[in-house]
Amino acid sequence: MVTNLTVKTTRRRAPVVFPRKIANLNVIQHFQLQQVNLPLASKGASDKNAKEQGKGRCNLIKEVKPAKRKPDPNARPKDKAKDDCYKDDADSCRKDDPNKPGCRKFSTYSAISLRTSLDSASKPCEIKKVCAAIPKFSAYDVLVRIGEVAITGSDIHVYEHGSTNSANISLGHDATGIIEATGECIHSLRRGDRVVMESSLSCGICEFCKRGVYNMCNNIIYNGFLMKYQVHPADLCYKLPDSVDMAEATLTQTLAQGCQAVFKAHITPTTNVLIMGSSAIAVASAFCAQAIGAKNVAFACTMPTPLASIHDDFDFDCVRYDVYGDYGEILEGIFCTFQDWPDVVINCAINERTMNIAVMCLRPCGTCVLTECESEGVSFNALDVLMKNIRIIPSFRSKNMFATAIHLINSGRAPMGKMIAARYRWSHIEQAFAAAQSESNYGYKKIVIQCGED
């Protein structure tokens, strides 16, 4: 005997009738219900009579066979033994296990700063080589074998002053590598792809992440890449063209920050751009401004050595001024360089001197973009800002700029390779940090560490 049920809906549609024996949702999800007007079977009717009542009409319940999934042509070949090895705990791995090729319990090296800012200033900062197992990764992550890592200003700051958040913080935030394994849900990247990683990891659930400004995430953390292997979200890994060198690509994040500053200034082919400072982001901003067609791009700085290098290597006009020089002489030098006043100032060395120069030299309705700070507190003429209607725009980190930066490098319009001062092997990491300290004090050059060596 089959007892029929009537399902009532709030939208006043015709009732749907289905037998109680398939009322389980786990069964119904494999069927398609078609809504028809059928007479209800009497309580004592047999199965045969119930079928005859619906004869000549569409079936109430129609079984739908699940469609076969077509194989993805871009899907990587799955090596179960090796993938399982990567996901296993270190204690379960054995070097002599024949069922798990390549399994290594002792598999990666990390450079970690061991000093916090609360420690004594006289205590030297240590970079210690530690060992760990290959980390686990989720279905949306990739396992990256690190190739090249550029030492950034934030790395040097932690190296010199420590970190208030953690005594053990992994260094190296600008890196490239090779995909070693991918999660189950990743089809855009395959094993063997060369990638550059965006190091900042946003939470994805805070107010700013939901608004799309993930660079302002409240819970942002950074992955350090001075190690042999690192797990990273696949959506923050960008595939590199074959023509882009991996060492040059380590400066993609630097170029992305420069692009962010330039795009915020709304530069056009009639725009004169003055860049204050001689840092790596300052040079990257100049590359981007020139690439999108700015009329003139020039630098203003107090340091003669990097300015001479910028002029010789990249053919940009440069204005050198004295730290305590007269404002009138500085403004005269800027005007003579452009034969006009700049429309945009990108300040990559924010201090009282540079802010006053920017406010004084800008044309009315000009734009001043702030990117890098040298002083936390500065004073400048607010009346000039008001009466000249100057826009002051901050540019912090970058968002959605890596694709643009990679395109500029690949097209040759951003020769980031000329910004690499030297490359060091992993075994000479202490010498690499000492050289990076020196370069950061004098200009825009970067030090790159080859993690794939040794």
Automatic annotation (TrEMBL):
Keywords: Metal-binding, Oxidoreductase, Zinc. One of its GO terms (biological process) is sorbitol catabolic process. Pfam families: ADH_N, ADH_zinc_N. Residues 289-410 form the Alcohol dehydrogenase-like C-terminal domain. Residues 44-98 are annotated as: Disordered. Residues 45-98 have a biased composition (Basic and acidic residues). GO terms for molecular function: L-iditol 2-dehydrogenase (NAD+) activity; metal ion binding. Its cofactor is Zn(2+). Gene3D superfamilies: Medium-chain alcohol dehydrogenases, catalytic domain, NAD(P)-binding Rossmann-like Domain. Residues 140-242 form the Alcohol dehydrogenase-like N-terminal domain. PANTHER family: SORBITOL DEHYDROGENASE (PTHR43161). Belongs to the zinc-containing alcohol dehydrogenase family. This is Uncharacterized protein. It comes from Glossina morsitans morsitans (Savannah tsetse fly).
